[in-house]
């Protein structure tokens, strides 16, 4: 059986699945049950400074986007950092860590942007036994208006400055959690690296309004007739998170900085995808909120099976897809495919026809008896028919042999060549 033990920036855990800082990690009762269910680590719900606890709304704090089967695709929340007293959280963290020394326990922090506030909170958490800190520079609502969370995460100079303070006043490993509410995620990651961060984690939630109540004319969740933007997460954000992780993993400026991947991880496969794109481990929130702590068990067995079936160690998975993430201009323009419909599997619904006909290609013919056939002379291989067909694998894409004539262009399929040397490119470099 593949060994799932993880060592992320020196923090050991029995598997690479950590719960992200959020309601499931807000208290001892939860975290103990999470560890019993099998989670390798948790990032405790974000702690703030000493003093009166933050105050949450007392109405609905979540808005949800459902799929057609009412599966939760995305959650929007307007919750703040922990609203429990600091000393209660610290006492509970110490107690849990004492009983679960083999699990990773990271403390997420968010305090005002001045050195003394960071120095004070770091001193308070020193004797909890926690394995590291995560700096919450990501929450996009509530705390951002107070100059914290994403208000810091959107200014690379602030990220660098605070990270330096943390490294100066603490010996703990420091993970900087990044906000996706920014144009180029590499910039804050570079700033975290300059500040001395041991790792970055991403993504925190995305600014969002999930829906509008068309009777109240207010965003949902609605609090006494009004709404405010919240942070979006869950399966819907995974593609955005994967891209951001990959950008950091392959950028020359940030390549090599350890990454904790977050955003829509629901199954072992999601986790493996994050890791293939460079994440050393993953963090999970929405899946645990939706399905409960035991969702980790599918992740553990699934990753075991996958690694075993590929005769691969966990360390060999991490970053394995990074070399294959390229800029568009490096893609092979001589890679030619054509759609093929399996007539035995086809149920004659006509979705492929409607999609192709009305998407400018007109490459599927509807013959008498609702027999659908690809017209290779027109097919640009866009893949849309595959994506809309309700029968899995009914339409596949066939790769042309080298030298085989593309019936659409009349040109034989050639060797690898990309846009940088294409004759239509006015900036074309001479082929090397
Ligand atoms: C209700 C809720 C509360 C959250 N609170 C925090 C928080 O206190 N600190 C933090 O760093 N992230 C917080 N997050 C963000 C999550 O840790 C995570 O980054 C995000 O939800 C994306 O992961 P997911 O798609 O698995 O949910 C919260 C998310 C939700 C849904
Ligand atoms: S791949 Fe695109 S162009 Fe070709 S048949 Fe399908 S939808 Fe039409
Ligand atoms: S979408 Fe799929 S099942 Fe429907 S007609 Fe096209 S090939 Fe057949």
TrEMBL record:
GO terms for cellular component: cytoplasm. Its EC number is 1.3.1.1. The keyword Iron applies. It catalyses: 5,6-dihydrouracil + NAD(+) = uracil + NADH + H(+); 5,6-dihydrothymine + NAD(+) = thymine + NADH + H(+). Keywords: Iron, Iron-sulfur, Metal-binding, Oxidoreductase. Residues 337-369, 370-400 form the 4Fe-4S ferredoxin-type domain. PANTHER family: DIHYDROPYRIMIDINE DEHYDROGENASE [NADP(+)]. This is dihydrouracil dehydrogenase (NAD(+)). It comes from Paracoccus aestuarii. The gene is preA.
């Amino acid at each position: 059986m593949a060994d799932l033990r993880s060592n992320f920036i020196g923090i050991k855990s029995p598997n690479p699945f950590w719960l992200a800082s959020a309601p499931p990690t807000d208290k001892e009762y939860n975290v103990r049950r999470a560890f019993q269910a099998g989670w390798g680590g948790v990032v405790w719900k974000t702690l703030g400074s000493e003093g009166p606890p933050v105050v949450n709304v007392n109405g609905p704090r979540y808005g949800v986007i459902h799929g057609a089967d009412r599966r939760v695709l995305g959650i929007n929340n307007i919750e703040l950092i922990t609203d429990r007293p600091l000393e209660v959280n610290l006492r509970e963290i110490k107690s849990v860590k004492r009983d679960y020394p083999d699990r990773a326990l990271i403390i997420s922090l968010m305090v005002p942007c001045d050195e003394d506030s960071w120095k004070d909170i770091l001193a308070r958490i020193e004797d909890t036994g926690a394995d590291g800190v995560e700096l919450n520079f990501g929450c996009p609502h509530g705390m951002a208006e107070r100059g914290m969370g994403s208000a810091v995460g959107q200014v690379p100079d602030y990220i660098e400055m605070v990270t330096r303070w943390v490294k100066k006043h603490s010996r703990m490993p420091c993970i900087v959690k990044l906000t996706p509410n920014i144009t180029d995620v590499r910039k804050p990651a570079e700033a975290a690296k300059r500040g001395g961060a041991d790792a970055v984690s991403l993504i925190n939630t995305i600014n969002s309004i999930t829906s509008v109540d068309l009777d109240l004319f207010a965003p949902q969740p609605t609090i006494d007739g009004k709404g405010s933007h919240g942070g979006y997460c869950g399966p819907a954000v995974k593609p955005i998170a994967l891209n951001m992780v990959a950008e950091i993993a392959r950028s020359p400026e940030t390549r090599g900085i350890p990454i904790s991947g977050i955003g829509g991880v629901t199954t072992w496969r999601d986790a493996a995808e994050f890791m293939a794109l460079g994440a050393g481990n993953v963090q999970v929130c929405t899946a645990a909120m939706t399905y409960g702590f035991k969702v980790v068990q599918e992740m553990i067995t699934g990753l075991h099976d996958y690694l075993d079936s590929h005769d691969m160690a966990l360390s060999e998975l991490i970053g394995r897809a990074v070399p294959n993430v390229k800029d568009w201009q490096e893609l092979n323009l001589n890679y030619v495919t054509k759609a093929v419909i399996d007539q035995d599997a086809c149920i004659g619904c006509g979705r492929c026809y409607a999609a192709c006909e009305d998407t400018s290609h007109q490459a599927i013919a509807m013959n008498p008896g609702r027999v659908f056939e690809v017209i290779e002379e027109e097919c640009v291989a866009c893949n849309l028919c595959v994506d809309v067909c309700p029968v899995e694998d009914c339409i596949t894409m066939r790769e042309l042999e080298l030298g085989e004539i593309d019936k659409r262009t009349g040109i034989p399929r050639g060797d690898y060549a990309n846009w940088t040397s294409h004759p239509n490119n006015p900036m074309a470099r001479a082929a090397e």
